[in-house]
Design brief:
Keywords: FAD, Flavoprotein, Oxidoreductase. One of its GO terms (molecular function) is oxidoreductase activity. Pfam families: FAD_binding_5. The chain is of the alpha+beta class. Among the domains are: 52 residues, Uridine Diphospho-n-acetylenolpyruvylglucosamine Reductase, domain 2; 97 residues, 2-Layer Sandwich (Enolase-like, domain 1). 35% of the residues lie in helices and 21% in strands. The chain contains 12 helices and 12 strands. The strands form 3 sheets. It has a 5-stranded antiparallel beta sheet with strand order 4-5-8-6-7. A hairpin with a 6-residue loop joins strand 9 and strand 10.
Protein backbone atom coordinates (compact mmCIF):
# COMPACT_ATOMS: atom_id res chain seq x y z
CA UNK A 1 0.00 0.00 0.00
CA UNK A 2 1.28 3.46 -0.87
CA UNK A 3 1.81 6.07 1.83
CA UNK A 4 -1.26 8.17 2.61
CA UNK A 5 -2.58 10.40 5.38
CA UNK A 6 -5.80 9.96 7.30
CA UNK A 7 -8.29 12.70 8.16
CA UNK A 8 -11.48 12.45 10.17
CA UNK A 9 -13.49 15.66 9.56
CA UNK A 10 -16.02 16.79 12.13
CA UNK A 11 -18.62 17.91 9.62
CA UNK A 12 -19.79 17.45 6.06
CA UNK A 13 -18.58 20.94 5.18
CA UNK A 14 -15.09 20.17 6.50
CA UNK A 15 -14.96 16.93 4.51
CA UNK A 16 -15.96 18.75 1.33
CA UNK A 17 -13.34 21.43 1.94
CA UNK A 18 -10.52 18.87 2.34
CA UNK A 19 -11.48 17.14 -0.91
CA UNK A 20 -11.83 20.45 -2.76
CA UNK A 21 -8.29 21.41 -1.76
CA UNK A 22 -6.68 18.13 -2.81
CA UNK A 23 -7.43 16.45 -6.14
CA UNK A 24 -5.74 13.22 -4.99
CA UNK A 25 -7.76 12.78 -1.77
CA UNK A 26 -10.52 10.19 -1.53
CA UNK A 27 -13.55 9.75 0.69
CA UNK A 28 -13.51 6.72 2.98
CA UNK A 29 -16.78 5.22 4.18
CA UNK A 30 -16.81 1.48 4.81
CA UNK A 31 -13.65 0.98 2.76
CA UNK A 32 -14.81 -2.32 1.31
CA UNK A 33 -13.61 -1.40 -2.17
CA UNK A 34 -11.09 1.40 -1.66
CA UNK A 35 -8.85 -0.31 0.90
CA UNK A 36 -8.42 -3.58 -1.05
CA UNK A 37 -7.70 -1.50 -4.16
CA UNK A 38 -5.03 0.39 -2.27
CA UNK A 39 -3.51 -2.84 -0.97
CA UNK A 40 -3.21 -4.04 -4.56
CA UNK A 41 -1.48 -0.74 -5.42
CA UNK A 42 -4.20 0.13 -7.91
CA UNK A 43 -5.08 3.34 -6.06
CA UNK A 44 -2.88 5.80 -4.21
CA UNK A 45 -4.92 8.63 -2.66
CA UNK A 46 -2.89 11.34 -0.94
CA UNK A 47 -5.44 11.51 1.87
CA UNK A 48 -8.24 9.32 3.18
CA UNK A 49 -11.10 11.49 4.34
CA UNK A 50 -13.17 9.34 6.72
CA UNK A 51 -16.83 10.34 6.54
CA UNK A 52 -18.28 7.17 8.09
CA UNK A 53 -18.96 8.81 11.47
CA UNK A 54 -20.48 12.09 10.27
CA UNK A 55 -23.84 12.74 11.93
CA UNK A 56 -25.21 14.29 8.71
CA UNK A 57 -24.84 10.89 7.00
CA UNK A 58 -26.50 8.84 9.73
CA UNK A 59 -30.05 7.88 10.64
CA UNK A 60 -33.13 6.11 9.34
CA UNK A 61 -36.54 7.78 9.27
CA UNK A 62 -39.93 6.72 7.97
CA UNK A 63 -42.85 8.83 6.79
CA UNK A 64 -46.15 7.75 5.31
CA UNK A 65 -44.60 7.81 1.85
CA UNK A 66 -40.90 7.05 2.13
CA UNK A 67 -37.98 5.60 4.05
CA UNK A 68 -34.96 7.90 4.27
CA UNK A 69 -31.60 6.30 5.02
CA UNK A 70 -28.34 8.10 5.71
CA UNK A 71 -25.52 7.27 3.32
CA UNK A 72 -23.20 6.14 6.13
CA UNK A 73 -25.62 3.55 7.47
CA UNK A 74 -24.12 0.07 7.31
CA UNK A 75 -25.71 -2.89 5.57
CA UNK A 76 -26.23 -4.49 8.98
CA UNK A 77 -27.99 -1.44 10.41
CA UNK A 78 -30.35 -1.37 7.43
CA UNK A 79 -30.99 -5.10 7.58
CA UNK A 80 -31.74 -5.00 11.31
CA UNK A 81 -33.74 -1.76 11.35
CA UNK A 82 -37.33 -2.26 12.58
CA UNK A 83 -38.32 0.81 10.55
CA UNK A 84 -36.98 -0.60 7.30
CA UNK A 85 -38.30 -4.08 8.07
CA UNK A 86 -41.76 -2.63 8.64
CA UNK A 87 -41.93 -0.22 5.69
CA UNK A 88 -39.88 -1.97 2.97
CA UNK A 89 -39.08 -5.49 4.19
CA UNK A 90 -37.57 -6.44 0.83
CA UNK A 91 -34.92 -3.74 1.25
CA UNK A 92 -34.00 -5.05 4.71
CA UNK A 93 -33.78 -8.58 3.34
CA UNK A 94 -31.60 -7.40 0.45
CA UNK A 95 -29.19 -5.76 2.91
CA UNK A 96 -29.03 -8.92 5.01
CA UNK A 97 -27.73 -10.87 2.01
CA UNK A 98 -24.80 -8.60 1.15
CA UNK A 99 -21.36 -10.18 1.60
CA UNK A 100 -20.58 -11.72 4.97
CA UNK A 101 -21.01 -10.41 8.56
CA UNK A 102 -17.75 -8.46 8.41
CA UNK A 103 -18.78 -6.72 5.19
CA UNK A 104 -22.28 -6.00 6.50
CA UNK A 105 -20.92 -4.38 9.65
CA UNK A 106 -18.46 -2.15 7.75
CA UNK A 107 -19.90 -1.53 4.30
CA UNK A 108 -22.29 1.39 3.81
CA UNK A 109 -25.23 2.26 1.59
CA UNK A 110 -23.54 5.39 0.27
CA UNK A 111 -20.22 3.69 -0.36
CA UNK A 112 -21.89 0.99 -2.42
CA UNK A 113 -23.92 3.46 -4.47
CA UNK A 114 -21.00 5.82 -5.04
CA UNK A 115 -18.87 2.92 -6.28
CA UNK A 116 -21.71 1.47 -8.41
CA UNK A 117 -20.19 -1.96 -8.78
CA UNK A 118 -22.09 -3.78 -11.57
CA UNK A 119 -22.76 -6.72 -9.24
CA UNK A 120 -23.86 -4.74 -6.16
CA UNK A 121 -27.34 -5.24 -4.70
CA UNK A 122 -28.42 -1.72 -3.71
CA UNK A 123 -28.49 -0.27 -7.24
CA UNK A 124 -31.32 -2.67 -8.13
CA UNK A 125 -33.36 -1.50 -5.13
CA UNK A 126 -32.68 2.18 -5.80
CA UNK A 127 -33.61 1.91 -9.46
CA UNK A 128 -36.66 -0.32 -9.03
CA UNK A 129 -38.10 1.80 -6.22
CA UNK A 130 -37.44 5.06 -8.07
CA UNK A 131 -35.46 6.42 -5.14
CA UNK A 132 -34.04 9.92 -4.85
CA UNK A 133 -30.35 10.33 -4.02
CA UNK A 134 -29.63 13.46 -2.01
CA UNK A 135 -26.11 14.93 -2.05
CA UNK A 136 -24.53 17.94 -0.41
CA UNK A 137 -25.38 19.86 -3.60
CA UNK A 138 -28.63 18.55 -5.10
CA UNK A 139 -31.18 15.76 -5.52
CA UNK A 140 -30.72 13.11 -8.22
CA UNK A 141 -33.44 10.76 -9.49
CA UNK A 142 -32.48 7.10 -9.67
CA UNK A 143 -33.05 7.01 -13.43
CA UNK A 144 -30.45 9.77 -13.84
CA UNK A 145 -27.95 8.54 -11.27
CA UNK A 146 -26.60 5.28 -12.74
CA UNK A 147 -24.58 6.00 -15.87
CA UNK A 148 -22.71 2.77 -16.56
CA UNK A 149 -20.33 0.37 -14.88
CA UNK A 150 -18.64 2.11 -11.91
CA UNK A 151 -20.02 5.41 -13.21
CA UNK A 152 -22.62 7.69 -11.61
CA UNK A 153 -23.92 11.24 -11.90
CA UNK A 154 -21.86 12.31 -8.87
CA UNK A 155 -19.52 15.16 -9.67
CA UNK A 156 -15.97 15.46 -8.37
CA UNK A 157 -16.07 16.04 -4.62
CA UNK A 158 -19.84 15.62 -4.38
CA UNK A 159 -20.96 13.71 -1.29
CA UNK A 160 -23.95 11.38 -1.16
CA UNK A 161 -25.82 12.30 2.04
CA UNK A 162 -28.96 10.15 2.08
CA UNK A 163 -31.31 8.11 -0.07
CA UNK A 164 -35.08 8.50 -0.06
CA UNK A 165 -36.87 5.24 -0.92
CA UNK A 166 -40.60 5.53 -1.78
CA UNK A 167 -42.62 2.88 0.04
CA UNK A 168 -44.00 0.46 -2.59
CA UNK A 169 -47.28 -1.39 -2.58
CA UNK A 170 -45.24 -4.55 -2.95
CA UNK A 171 -41.69 -5.50 -3.81
CA UNK A 172 -39.48 -8.55 -4.16
CA UNK A 173 -35.82 -9.26 -4.76
CA UNK A 174 -34.03 -12.43 -5.78
CA UNK A 175 -30.41 -12.95 -6.70
CA UNK A 176 -28.18 -15.78 -7.79
CA UNK A 177 -25.02 -15.16 -5.85
CA UNK A 178 -21.43 -16.04 -6.48
CA UNK A 179 -20.72 -18.58 -3.72
CA UNK A 180 -17.34 -17.03 -2.90
CA UNK A 181 -18.00 -13.28 -2.96
CA UNK A 182 -21.80 -13.33 -2.54
CA UNK A 183 -22.01 -10.66 -5.22
CA UNK A 184 -24.98 -11.03 -7.56
CA UNK A 185 -24.33 -12.89 -10.79
CA UNK A 186 -27.89 -11.83 -11.54
CA UNK A 187 -30.27 -10.04 -9.19
CA UNK A 188 -33.76 -8.79 -10.00
CA UNK A 189 -35.78 -6.32 -7.91
CA UNK A 190 -39.46 -5.93 -8.80
CA UNK A 191 -41.81 -3.34 -7.36
CA UNK A 192 -45.24 -1.81 -7.72
CA UNK A 193 -45.06 1.77 -6.51
CA UNK A 194 -47.75 3.72 -4.70
CA UNK A 195 -49.02 5.22 -7.97
CA UNK A 196 -49.36 1.75 -9.52
CA UNK A 197 -46.25 1.98 -11.69
CA UNK A 198 -44.31 -1.26 -12.07
CA UNK A 199 -40.52 -1.12 -12.12
CA UNK A 200 -38.03 -3.94 -12.59
CA UNK A 201 -34.28 -3.49 -12.14
CA UNK A 202 -31.52 -5.99 -12.88
CA UNK A 203 -28.07 -6.03 -11.32
CA UNK A 204 -25.06 -8.31 -11.72
CA UNK A 205 -25.79 -9.27 -15.31
CA UNK A 206 -25.64 -6.28 -17.64
CA UNK A 207 -22.50 -5.05 -19.37
CA UNK A 208 -23.34 -1.48 -18.41
CA UNK A 209 -24.28 -2.21 -14.82
CA UNK A 210 -27.77 -2.00 -13.36
CA UNK A 211 -30.63 -1.53 -15.83
CA UNK A 212 -34.42 -1.53 -16.04
CA UNK A 213 -36.13 -4.45 -17.73
CA UNK A 214 -38.91 -2.55 -19.49
CA UNK A 215 -40.43 -5.59 -21.22
CA UNK A 216 -40.90 -7.23 -17.84
CA UNK A 217 -42.38 -4.02 -16.43
CA UNK A 218 -45.00 -3.96 -19.17
CA UNK A 219 -45.83 -7.63 -18.70
CA UNK A 220 -46.21 -7.31 -14.94
CA UNK A 221 -48.32 -4.18 -15.37
CA UNK A 222 -50.86 -6.30 -17.21
CA UNK A 223 -50.50 -9.43 -15.11
CA UNK A 224 -48.56 -9.58 -11.87
CA UNK A 225 -47.44 -13.20 -11.91
CA UNK A 226 -44.35 -15.28 -12.50
CA UNK A 227 -45.96 -16.56 -15.69
CA UNK A 228 -46.04 -13.01 -17.06
CA UNK A 229 -42.24 -12.78 -17.13
CA UNK A 230 -41.52 -16.45 -17.80
CA UNK A 231 -41.65 -16.05 -21.56
CA UNK A 232 -39.58 -12.87 -21.75
CA UNK A 233 -36.10 -13.60 -23.05
CA UNK A 234 -33.15 -11.39 -22.26
CA UNK A 235 -30.69 -10.61 -25.04
CA UNK A 236 -27.37 -12.34 -24.21
CA UNK A 237 -25.45 -9.77 -26.24
CA UNK A 238 -26.15 -7.24 -23.50
CA UNK A 239 -24.97 -9.52 -20.69
CA UNK A 240 -21.65 -9.85 -18.89
CA UNK A 241 -19.52 -12.90 -19.61
CA UNK A 242 -16.69 -14.06 -17.35
CA UNK A 243 -15.21 -17.13 -15.69
CA UNK A 244 -18.22 -17.39 -13.38
CA UNK A 245 -20.85 -17.50 -16.12
CA UNK A 246 -21.14 -16.63 -19.78
CA UNK A 247 -23.64 -14.21 -21.31
CA UNK A 248 -26.23 -16.86 -22.21
CA UNK A 249 -26.10 -18.24 -18.67
CA UNK A 250 -26.62 -14.81 -17.15
CA UNK A 251 -29.48 -14.05 -19.54
CA UNK A 252 -31.25 -17.17 -18.35
CA UNK A 253 -30.52 -16.29 -14.73
CA UNK A 254 -32.25 -12.93 -15.17
CA UNK A 255 -35.45 -14.66 -16.25
CA UNK A 256 -35.28 -17.14 -13.38
CA UNK A 257 -34.54 -14.47 -10.75
CA UNK A 258 -37.35 -12.29 -12.11
CA UNK A 259 -39.87 -15.08 -11.63
CA UNK A 260 -38.61 -15.70 -8.10
CA UNK A 261 -38.73 -11.99 -7.25
CA UNK A 262 -42.35 -11.75 -8.40
CA UNK A 263 -43.27 -14.74 -6.26
CA UNK A 264 -41.45 -13.21 -3.28
CA UNK A 265 -43.32 -9.94 -3.72
CA UNK A 266 -46.66 -11.70 -3.91
CA UNK A 267 -45.86 -13.62 -0.74
Amino acid sequence: MYETSYKRPASLAEAAAIIAADDEAKFLAGGQTLLPTMKQRLAAPSQLVDIARLAELKGISVSSEAVTIGAAMTHYSIASSPEVQGAIPTLAKLASGIGDPQVRHRGTLGGSLANNDPSADYPAAVLALGATLVTDRREIAADDYFQGMFTTALEEGEILVRVVFPIPRKAGYSKFLNPASRYAMAGVFVATLADGAVRVAVTGAGQGGVFRATAMEEALGDNWSADAVAGIKVDPSDMLSDIHGDAAYRANLVSVMAKRAVVAAAG
